[in-house]
Amino acid sequence: MPWWFFRRRSRPAASQTAPAIASGWLPGEVALPRLQGPRRYLQEQPYLLPKDLGEVNRLDFQHYALRAALRGNYLAPIVQPHRILDVGCGTGQWAFELAQQFPQAQVVGLDLEQVKAATSPPPNYRFVQGDILQGLPFDNDSFDFVHQRLLFLAIPLPAWPGVVQDLARVTAPGGWVELAETGTALEDWHPCGQATQEFCRLAAQLASLRGIDTDAVPRSLECYLEEAGLVNIHGQRFAVPLGEWGGRIGSLMALNVCEGWKAISAPLAARFGKPEQEVLALIEQAHREWNEFHTSCHFAVAYGQKPLTH
Ligand SMILES: C[S@@+](CC[C@H](N)C(=O)[O-])C[C@H]1O[C@@H](n2cnc3c(N)ncnc32)[C@H](O)[C@@H]1O
């Protein structure tokens, strides 16, 4: 059996349901796109960020900035993993690098949509389309390392424990699950000024309309791992500088965060009845404040191991 032939679980994917097809949803799509101004968003998904070329470029840029700031792609003490899964893989860049680092391993990236389909990924990488909110389409104990990064704008708070349990389910005994997130609480953007606080407040409110809690998630990662039955849990926080005061990484992260915030400026403006220019001006003001206050963006990373007797 080829290694990528993973059995699907019995629950039908959202794309196979009649109402979705009746509304123009193509089979094979797990989320219907919606255009808002020049940006393309996914409809019928809680995920707030756009899915378009601008976001592909930002995610790649963010990946390089985070890798430099965190001095690596992961923290878990993995040695020679044979099967690696990246959930919500985005552009796939993290998974491509793991595939290159561990050429003997089989690496799978799972996301709602494949981007960069035209580029040639490493030969030991495969993309699998799926929706973490519908359950992972893999058998129990399939992977030695399961990674999920920056889904805090995608997973409603009540779904988090079940999602992490599913990550643990597909992890082999002795294997590791790693989560990396940030949020919109004051602690996540510290120290910061008024404009940063105001933007975070609006973003958190927009997210909460979809059941997403951007304050709680980065502080709950260890708890989710523990509730999923994992052991040897370790959590760490990283402060990544924002702005030119923080040198090259600070400049890269400031650019990344500005683009990320602009990516939701239209939905924010529409939801709160503001002109989009006002939201864009708030972002510019926040950018200036990062240099004034020496603001850092704080990331929480946590990993845990599936017990051998699970
Ligand atoms: C902010 S991006 C992070 C991408 C990547 N993990 C990284 O760190 O570069 C979030 C990704 O999660 C994906 N996503 C959102 N909701 C999802 C879901 N329900 N199931 C699977 N992937 C999802 C999005 O399509 C997007 O690619």
Care to describe what's here?
With 310 residues, this protein is an alpha/beta fold. It has a single domain (46-305), classed as Vaccinia Virus protein VP39 (Rossmann fold, 3-Layer(aba) Sandwich), CATH 3.40.50.150. Helix content is 34%, strand content 22%. The protein has helices spanning 18-22, 53-70, 93-101, 160-169, 194-208, 221-227, 247-262, 265-272, 276-293, and strands at residues 32-36, 39-43, 83-87, 106-111, 125-129, 143-149, 171-181, 189-190, 231-241, 296-305. Strand 6, helix 4 and strand 7 form a beta-alpha-beta unit. The protein is globular. The chain starts with 17 loop residues before the first helix and ends in a 5-residue tail after the last strand.
Per the CATH scheme, the topology name is Rossmann fold
Number of DSSP E strands:
10
How many structural domains does the protein architecture include? Answer: 1
Which architecture name does CATH use? 3-Layer(aba) Sandwich
CATH superfamily: Vaccinia Virus protein VP39
Helix and strand sequence: HEEHEHEEEHEEHHEHHHE
Judging from the principal axes of the Cα atoms, what is the shape?
globular
Mean pLDDT figure: 89
Low-confidence spans: 1-29
Question: Bound small molecules, which ones?
Answer: S-adenosylmethionine
